[in-house]
Structure to design on (93 residues):
């Protein structure tokens, strides 16, 4: 299930210049904020099912659909899909 999200929806301070690249276990909230701040539309693919945990507790597995066209499309016209995996919620209760 993919959910479109903007930086305003998750809060926090966006990081500077983040081009979509393969995930490396980075914090999901920081990665999504950075991509949104760059102008991309970001959709979350929840790995293992949607979580109710805060995105700062989740990690990025990978990022799909980088803007590699020639010439590249405007970032506002590109949806980037971020695979996000969160800890098992049953272990946190």
């Amino acid at each position: 299930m993919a959910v479109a999200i903007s930086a305003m929806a998750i809060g926090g301070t966006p990081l500077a210049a983040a081009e979509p690249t393969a995930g490396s276990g980075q914090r999901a909230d920081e990665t999504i904020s950075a991509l949104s701040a760059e102008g991309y539309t970001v959709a979350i693919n929840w790995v293992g099912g949607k979580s109710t945990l805060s995105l700062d507790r989740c990690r990025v597995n990978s990022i799909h659909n980088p803007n590699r066209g020639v010439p590249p499309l405007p970032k506002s016209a590109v949806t980037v899909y971020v695979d996000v995996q969160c800890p098992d919620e049953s272990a946190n209760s």
